[in-house]
Write a structure and sequence with these properties.
alpha/beta; 5-stranded parallel β-sheet; 5 helices
Length: about 210
């Protein structure tokens, strides 16, 4: 019977080790999935720097947002965190989305607190054409991760920034390479120190300073 007790002990120990490895692997997967955009905590500063280089005042900037895909929960959460940084001082906002009900609370807030009416468009080609053309000061933020760069939004007078379709890079001197259409704009260091998990947004104020 001794061999049976030894076998049971060995099996129990192996099972415990396997469960521990699975937990660690699961935690690593969660950490990896929660980190998407490398400088989300400094998004307002980056956008202000881009507008300054383009000669557009924040007051005159016309925000046009292409919403993240349905079901991309963590990207949707991160999108909201970054957009909340842009609300103070915003005077024009168009949201192209397939899930308007998810944005109802923020739209009510913008209207009640800032008097800003959000124009909502469906994610259909005909509706999204309102974001094309040569309108001065339009800032297009594309939060979709799949698909192509939307060339129909590229123009000399608009700024098209893809958040997930092209990689953003931090240089050794903390400068950030921002993808503008098919080009790159260099934004000088904004205090960026590393990646931030989306879950950290719950510990921050509603508006980033």
């Amino acid at each position: 019977m001794k061999w049976w007790k030894k076998l049971k002990s060995l099996l129990r120990r192996n099972k415990s080790n396997l469960q521990s490895e699975n937990r660690n692997s699961h935690q690593d997967d969660l950490i990896e999935k929660e980190i998407y955009f490398p400088c989300n905590a400094f998004f307002r500063k980056i956008i202000e720097a881009v507008l300054e280089q383009k000669g557009i005042s924040y007051r005159d900037m016309r925000l046009f947002v292409i919403d993240a895909e349905d079901g991309a929960y963590l990207r949707q959460e991160e999108e909201q965190y970054m957009l909340q940084q842009l609300y103070p001082g915003l005077n024009a906002y168009t949201l192209c989305t397939g899930r308007p009900e998810c944005h109802r609370k923020e739209m009510d807030y913008l209207y009640e607190e800032m008097g800003l009416i959000v124009e909502v468009l469906e994610k259909k080609k005909k509706a999204m054409q309102k974001g094309t053309g040569q309108e001065e000061g339009r800032l297009i933020l594309d939060f979709e991760a799949d698909g192509r760069i939307r060339e129909e939004f590229l123009s000399e007078k608009s700024i098209y920034i893809s958040i997930y379709k092209r990689n953003w890079y931090q240089r050794a001197n903390l400068d950030i390479e921002v993808p503008i259409g098919y080009n790159i704009m260099i934004v000088k260091g904004t205090g960026f120190t590393g990646c931030e998990a989306v879950s950290d947004r719950l510990e921050r104020e509603f508006y980033a300073e």
